[in-house]
Design a protein that fits this description.
Layout lengths: L1 E4 L5 H15 L4 E2 L10 E2 L4 E3 H11 L7 E5 L3 E2 L8 E3 L5 E5 L14 H19 L18 H6 L6 H19 L5
Parallel strand pairs: 1-2, 1-5, 4-6, 5-8
Antiparallel strand pairs: 3-4, 7-8
Helix pairs in contact: 1-3
Length: about 190
Protein backbone atom coordinates (compact mmCIF):
# COMPACT_ATOMS: atom_id res chain seq x y z
CA UNK A 1 0.00 0.00 0.00
CA UNK A 2 1.33 3.44 -0.87
CA UNK A 3 0.68 6.96 0.36
CA UNK A 4 1.50 9.95 -1.81
CA UNK A 5 0.72 13.65 -1.83
CA UNK A 6 -0.43 16.05 -4.53
CA UNK A 7 -0.52 19.80 -4.22
CA UNK A 8 1.11 19.98 -0.84
CA UNK A 9 0.34 18.16 2.36
CA UNK A 10 1.52 18.38 5.94
CA UNK A 11 4.43 15.89 6.10
CA UNK A 12 3.70 14.90 9.72
CA UNK A 13 0.07 14.25 8.78
CA UNK A 14 1.24 12.15 5.81
CA UNK A 15 3.34 10.02 8.18
CA UNK A 16 0.32 9.78 10.48
CA UNK A 17 -1.74 8.61 7.48
CA UNK A 18 0.70 5.76 6.81
CA UNK A 19 0.41 4.69 10.46
CA UNK A 20 -3.40 4.85 10.26
CA UNK A 21 -3.38 2.58 7.22
CA UNK A 22 -1.11 0.07 8.90
CA UNK A 23 -3.32 0.08 11.99
CA UNK A 24 -6.72 -0.05 10.27
CA UNK A 25 -5.85 -2.63 7.62
CA UNK A 26 -2.84 -4.50 9.04
CA UNK A 27 -0.95 -3.72 5.84
CA UNK A 28 2.36 -1.91 5.68
CA UNK A 29 2.01 1.49 4.07
CA UNK A 30 4.98 3.20 2.51
CA UNK A 31 5.42 6.78 1.46
CA UNK A 32 5.67 7.27 -2.28
CA UNK A 33 7.20 10.13 -4.22
CA UNK A 34 4.88 13.16 -4.29
CA UNK A 35 2.76 13.67 -7.36
CA UNK A 36 2.97 17.00 -9.20
CA UNK A 37 0.68 19.83 -8.21
CA UNK A 38 -2.77 19.01 -9.65
CA UNK A 39 -3.11 22.29 -11.56
CA UNK A 40 -4.59 20.22 -14.42
CA UNK A 41 -7.58 19.45 -12.14
CA UNK A 42 -8.45 23.09 -11.32
CA UNK A 43 -12.00 24.09 -12.26
CA UNK A 44 -12.17 27.85 -12.60
CA UNK A 45 -15.99 28.01 -12.39
CA UNK A 46 -16.09 26.03 -9.14
CA UNK A 47 -12.84 27.31 -7.64
CA UNK A 48 -12.03 23.72 -6.67
CA UNK A 49 -10.09 20.74 -7.96
CA UNK A 50 -11.65 17.76 -9.71
CA UNK A 51 -11.05 14.66 -7.61
CA UNK A 52 -11.82 12.51 -10.64
CA UNK A 53 -8.92 14.02 -12.60
CA UNK A 54 -6.58 13.55 -9.64
CA UNK A 55 -7.68 9.89 -9.41
CA UNK A 56 -6.97 9.37 -13.11
CA UNK A 57 -3.50 10.82 -12.73
CA UNK A 58 -2.83 8.66 -9.67
CA UNK A 59 -3.88 5.52 -11.54
CA UNK A 60 -1.38 6.27 -14.30
CA UNK A 61 1.38 6.76 -11.69
CA UNK A 62 0.59 3.79 -9.44
CA UNK A 63 3.80 1.85 -8.83
CA UNK A 64 3.94 -1.81 -9.77
CA UNK A 65 3.14 -3.93 -6.75
CA UNK A 66 1.14 -1.24 -4.94
CA UNK A 67 -2.20 -2.88 -4.20
CA UNK A 68 -3.69 0.46 -3.15
CA UNK A 69 -2.56 4.08 -3.36
CA UNK A 70 -3.94 6.89 -1.23
CA UNK A 71 -3.38 10.41 -2.55
CA UNK A 72 -3.42 13.12 0.10
CA UNK A 73 -3.96 16.73 -0.90
CA UNK A 74 -4.66 20.02 0.80
CA UNK A 75 -6.67 21.14 -2.23
CA UNK A 76 -10.46 21.44 -1.89
CA UNK A 77 -11.95 18.76 -4.18
CA UNK A 78 -15.30 18.04 -5.81
CA UNK A 79 -17.22 15.69 -8.05
CA UNK A 80 -19.71 17.24 -10.49
CA UNK A 81 -22.86 16.21 -8.61
CA UNK A 82 -21.72 17.53 -5.19
CA UNK A 83 -20.48 20.89 -3.96
CA UNK A 84 -17.48 19.17 -2.35
CA UNK A 85 -16.16 15.81 -1.21
CA UNK A 86 -13.78 14.89 1.57
CA UNK A 87 -12.46 12.19 -0.70
CA UNK A 88 -13.20 9.92 -3.61
CA UNK A 89 -12.23 6.33 -4.28
CA UNK A 90 -12.62 3.72 -6.94
CA UNK A 91 -15.02 1.14 -5.57
CA UNK A 92 -12.96 -2.06 -5.28
CA UNK A 93 -10.22 -0.29 -7.21
CA UNK A 94 -6.61 0.63 -6.49
CA UNK A 95 -6.74 4.39 -5.88
CA UNK A 96 -8.34 6.90 -3.51
CA UNK A 97 -7.87 10.63 -3.02
CA UNK A 98 -8.48 12.50 0.22
CA UNK A 99 -8.54 16.25 0.82
CA UNK A 100 -7.60 17.78 4.15
CA UNK A 101 -9.06 21.20 3.24
CA UNK A 102 -12.42 20.77 4.97
CA UNK A 103 -11.03 18.59 7.77
CA UNK A 104 -9.28 21.56 9.34
CA UNK A 105 -11.05 23.86 11.77
CA UNK A 106 -9.50 26.82 9.99
CA UNK A 107 -11.71 26.12 6.95
CA UNK A 108 -14.70 27.03 9.15
CA UNK A 109 -12.97 30.17 10.51
CA UNK A 110 -12.24 28.45 13.83
CA UNK A 111 -8.92 28.19 15.67
CA UNK A 112 -6.68 25.28 14.66
CA UNK A 113 -7.24 22.00 16.53
CA UNK A 114 -4.56 19.49 15.58
CA UNK A 115 -5.97 16.48 17.52
CA UNK A 116 -9.41 16.99 15.93
CA UNK A 117 -7.86 17.35 12.47
CA UNK A 118 -5.90 14.09 12.90
CA UNK A 119 -8.99 12.24 14.13
CA UNK A 120 -10.97 13.45 11.10
CA UNK A 121 -8.10 12.43 8.85
CA UNK A 122 -8.01 8.96 10.40
CA UNK A 123 -11.76 8.51 9.83
CA UNK A 124 -11.59 9.58 6.20
CA UNK A 125 -8.53 7.44 5.46
CA UNK A 126 -10.40 4.36 6.68
CA UNK A 127 -13.54 5.45 4.80
CA UNK A 128 -11.92 6.09 1.42
CA UNK A 129 -9.70 3.02 1.55
CA UNK A 130 -12.73 1.02 2.68
CA UNK A 131 -14.28 1.89 -0.69
CA UNK A 132 -11.18 0.58 -2.47
CA UNK A 133 -11.76 -2.71 -0.64
CA UNK A 134 -15.30 -2.87 -2.03
CA UNK A 135 -17.26 -1.39 0.88
CA UNK A 136 -20.20 0.89 0.14
CA UNK A 137 -21.73 3.39 2.56
CA UNK A 138 -22.92 1.79 5.78
CA UNK A 139 -26.27 2.50 7.41
CA UNK A 140 -24.68 2.42 10.89
CA UNK A 141 -24.14 6.15 11.54
CA UNK A 142 -21.24 5.37 13.90
CA UNK A 143 -19.34 3.24 11.38
CA UNK A 144 -16.50 4.98 9.59
CA UNK A 145 -18.12 3.82 6.33
CA UNK A 146 -21.25 5.91 6.94
CA UNK A 147 -21.75 8.77 4.51
CA UNK A 148 -20.64 12.18 5.75
CA UNK A 149 -21.99 15.12 3.78
CA UNK A 150 -21.00 17.68 6.39
CA UNK A 151 -18.43 18.05 9.16
CA UNK A 152 -20.98 17.36 11.91
CA UNK A 153 -21.73 13.92 10.45
CA UNK A 154 -18.02 13.24 10.13
CA UNK A 155 -17.44 14.21 13.76
CA UNK A 156 -20.27 11.98 14.99
CA UNK A 157 -19.00 8.77 13.42
CA UNK A 158 -16.21 6.66 14.82
CA UNK A 159 -12.82 5.95 13.28
CA UNK A 160 -13.48 2.21 13.25
CA UNK A 161 -15.54 -0.09 11.07
CA UNK A 162 -18.74 -1.61 12.46
CA UNK A 163 -18.65 -5.40 12.91
CA UNK A 164 -20.19 -6.07 9.48
CA UNK A 165 -17.82 -3.74 7.62
CA UNK A 166 -14.83 -5.06 9.60
CA UNK A 167 -15.57 -8.58 8.34
CA UNK A 168 -15.73 -7.34 4.75
CA UNK A 169 -12.44 -5.45 5.13
CA UNK A 170 -10.72 -8.50 6.62
CA UNK A 171 -11.91 -10.64 3.70
CA UNK A 172 -10.78 -8.04 1.15
CA UNK A 173 -7.35 -7.63 2.75
CA UNK A 174 -6.90 -11.42 2.80
CA UNK A 175 -7.81 -11.57 -0.90
CA UNK A 176 -5.26 -8.87 -1.71
CA UNK A 177 -2.55 -10.60 0.34
CA UNK A 178 -3.18 -13.84 -1.58
CA UNK A 179 -2.95 -11.98 -4.89
CA UNK A 180 0.28 -10.32 -3.89
CA UNK A 181 1.74 -13.64 -2.69
CA UNK A 182 0.94 -15.05 -6.12
CA UNK A 183 2.67 -12.12 -7.77
CA UNK A 184 -0.54 -10.47 -8.95
CA UNK A 185 -1.63 -6.91 -8.17
CA UNK A 186 -5.34 -6.34 -7.89
Amino acid sequence: MGVTTAGGFDSEAAEFAALCISSAFSIDARRLEPMPDPAYAWDEARQQYSSTLILRDAISRRPAGAARVLVLTERDIFIPMLSFVYGQAQLDGPVAVLSSARLRQEFYSLPPNRPLFLLRLRKEIAHELGHTFGLTHCQDRLCTMSLSTNIEQLDLKQAEFCDSCAILVTEAVSRIRRSMAEGRTE
